[in-house]
Amino acid sequence: MDNEDKRLLKEVVIKLVVGILFCSFLFWLFSKNLSEEKHNKGAIIMKILKIPNEQELRPYCDDQECFEIAELLTQKFHGLKRQDGFYFSDNQGKDHSWNVAFDGTIIDVTHQQFDRTRPVLIVQPGTEEYKRYYPWSLHHNPNCLHKLLNTGQECELCKEQKEKET
User: Fold this and answer.
1) 37 and 58 share one domain
2) Which domain-ending residue is among 14, 34, 49?
3) Comparing C-alpha atoms, which of 114, 122, 149 is closest to residue 134?
4) Of the four listed, 5, 89, 129, 134, which is most buried by Cβ atoms within 10 Å?
């Protein structure tokens, strides 16, 4: 190998090493930006899914129009969805709409229809109050619904379904 070949080989190796270092730097830079962006997206998602507190919900309190108010809250607080069904008070099921957060927490700002002492109701899954809310989706047949409305007792299939959801 003559001097010219050695010089060309040395030049190629240098360019190759510089290229590898440059690619490594770009990869590191890209990875860093992705992890920061991922962290920011996580923070944004948690902000969106945040369960509103009583103070944020109080302007929406109403003692009627539960369907409309629950729908309005889904637009105002993107982590909430509207749930329609029955609320049981004094062993009577009454048509009702409320909101459910991503973690199953019930948010009911029209609860004044049933209890004037609590304008905003935030109910955690697994509590006794939580059991008073029965989504329509849980009822599989008219006989079950009839039994629920007349006796306040649900069929075994509905009990199992509700336990799976909580």
Assistant:
1) no
2) 49
3) 149
4) 134
Q: Distance between alpha carbon 85 and the CA centroid of its chain, in Å?
A: 19
CB 140, CB 92: distance < 8 Å: no
Helices (H) and strands (E) in the chain, counts: 5, 5
How many domains, in total, are found in the chain? 2
Query: Tens digit of pLDDT per residue, the chain (166 long)?
Result: 788 888 888 888 888 888 787 777 767 766 665 555 555 555 555 555 567 888 888 888 876 789 999 999 999 888 899 999 888 877 666 889 999 998 899 999 998 888 778 778 899 998 888 888 888 776 655 556 656 666 666 667 667 766 776 5
113 and 139 housed in the same domain: yes
Q: 159 and 115 in one domain?
A: yes
Kindly state the helix (H) or strand (E) to which residue 107 belongs, with its residue range.
strand 106-108
Where in the sequence is the domain holding 155, given as residue range(s)? 54-165
Calculate the alpha carbon distances from 98 to 67, 89, 108 in Å.
7, 15, 5
pTM, full prediction: 0.59
Domain boundary among 49, 64, 81: 49
As given in the structure block, the two tokens for residue 152 are 């306040």
